[in-house]
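Email to the structure team, subject: Aspartyl/glutamyl-tRNA(Asn/Gln) amidotransferase subunit C model.

Hi all, the expression group asked for a predicted structure before they design truncation constructs. Nothing fancy, just the C-alpha cells so they can compare against earlier work. One-line instruction: predict Aspartyl/glutamyl-tRNA(Asn/Gln) amidotransferase subunit C, return C-alpha cells.
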Amino acid sequence: MSITTKDVQHVAKLARLNMTPEEENLFTDQLNAILQYAEKLKELDTEGVEPTTHVLPLHNVMREDENRKSLPIEKVLLNAPDEEDGHFKVPAVME
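Reply from the structure team: attached below.
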C-alpha cells in the first residue's frame, strides 16, 4: 500500500488545510516512508512476545493520597471573578 498525492489532497480537504504542491509532495513522501517502516516491522518474529502498553514494567506510579488542610475560603475566592455567599458565582447555563 502506498499513499498518493491525491490521498494527501483528500485528507487535506477533509481537514480544511490549504497546502501547496510542494507540501503535498513532502507529505506524500513522509507518509510513504512511515508505511515502508511499518512494512519492515512486519518482518520481525513476534511469536511469544506479550502485548504491552509500556516498555517498562510500571505499576501504580501515583502518589499516596494524604489528608491535609484546605486553603481558607477567603484566599480561594480571591481569584474568583464573582462570588456570592462564599461560593463561585457563574452565569446560568440552563433557564
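The chain has a mean pLDDT of 90. The domain at 5-41 is CATH 1.10.20.60 (Histone, subunit A). Ping us if the truncation boundaries need rechecking.
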